Amino acid sequence: MRASMHRAASAALTQLLQFAPPDSPRSLPCSCGSQARYKEQRSKPVLTIVGLVTVIRPYYLCSRCHGGQFPTDSELDIVNTEFSPGVRRMQALVGQQSSFDRGRQELQLLAGIAVTTKAVERAAEAIGADIAQRDQKEIDRALQLQLPLEIGPKVPVLYILLDGTGVPVRKSETEGRQGKNQGQPARTREVKLGCVFTQTGLNEEGYPIRDVGSTTYVAAIETAERFGKRLYVEAWKRGWSQADQKVVIGDGAEWIWNIADQQFPGAVRSLTSSTPANICGTSLAPSILWTRPHNNAGFSAISPNSTPARSKS
Ligand SMILES: [Zn+2]
């Protein structure tokens, strides 16, 4: 039934995507400064979420620079691609969950859409690059001028947790980088991970509980300075300026407390000897942040601006 509905829908959609030749104007401005003249109708296949369709639309060609253009493709958001925006969104979604090939299989299973592994990779990376660019713009803007005050419900306790962890990368990504062992080339790059979450309640043992679903994440392979700004923008969006209590959690790494100094002065500092990256990661499943400390792995809240020290409690 699904397959036949897809066939019917893609046939109907193809009918809607037959664009007529232009009456006027028969020419368009070209990026070279000259004019591109209407040349002919051209067709291309486009894979949509209901299957393969054929788009027919006007083609314009510039006689000076020989650049061609399809204005309809810009309107439909299918410039230089044979995948509809809906399919690209799906590809990016499955592509960021696990391997690209696994994503391809999931698309087939869940949506009945057959694509190549490479197509999943391309769409996921293109949307990823787009997101990264927009994030960077936002960070730049935030640093140039004061961020607008976020108006929302007041947050009793807002936490920032940050850590770094090595991720295996291709050889080309570690070229010229010193590994942990003297004389050995680096095999990993450090990805910095930060999460922001709220806490309003305690569990029956009196330990604070992270509010379910309140965690947002930022991550990047970049310098501590840049990452500090990225995390600052995220914290701001979550209402950092309006929180009654602000807490920064991290391990003993120096860069973490440098970021705390620069971006989050005045926050309560909480030092953990267990691995914050693991705690960050587990938030997707359990909502309890602190369990009863065992061995030496505990948290300690210490007064603002004092040097963090490991806790035995
Ligand atoms: Zn031109």
Please give the structural blueprint:
Layout lengths: L1 H15 L10 E3 L5 E14 L2 E12 L5 E2 L1 H6 L8 H11 L4 H12 L5 H28 L12 E12 L19 E15 L5 E3 L5 E5 L3 H14 L7 E6 L3 H10 L4 E5 L3 H7 L16 E4 L11
The chain binds zinc ion.
Zinc ion binds next to loops.
Secondary-structure-derived class: alpha+beta
Alpha-carbon distance between the two ends: 62 Å
Number of strands: 11
Identify low-pLDDT runs: 282-313
Structure ligands = zinc ion
Helix count, per DSSP? 8
Summary tags:
single chain, 313 residues, alpha+beta, 4-stranded antiparallel sheet, 8 helices, disordered C terminus, binds zinc ion
Describe the structure.
This protein has 313 residues and is of the alpha+beta class. It has helices at residues 2-16, 71-76, 85-95, 100-111, 117-144, 224-237, 254-263, 276-282; strands at 27-29, 35-48, 51-62, 68-69, 157-168, 188-202, 208-210, 216-220, 245-250, 268-272, 299-302. Among the domains are: 87-143; 157-306, no CATH class. The strands form two sheets. Strands 5, 6, 7, 8, 9, 10 and 11 form a seven-stranded mixed sheet that branches. A hairpin with a 5-residue loop joins strand 6 (188-202) and strand 7 (208-210). Helix 3 (85-95) packs across helix 4, helix 3 packs across helix 5 and helix 4 packs across helix 5. The radius of gyration is 26 Å and the shape is elongated. The chain binds zinc ion. Zinc ion binds next to loops.
Structure summarized in a few sentences:
The protein has eight helices and eleven strands.
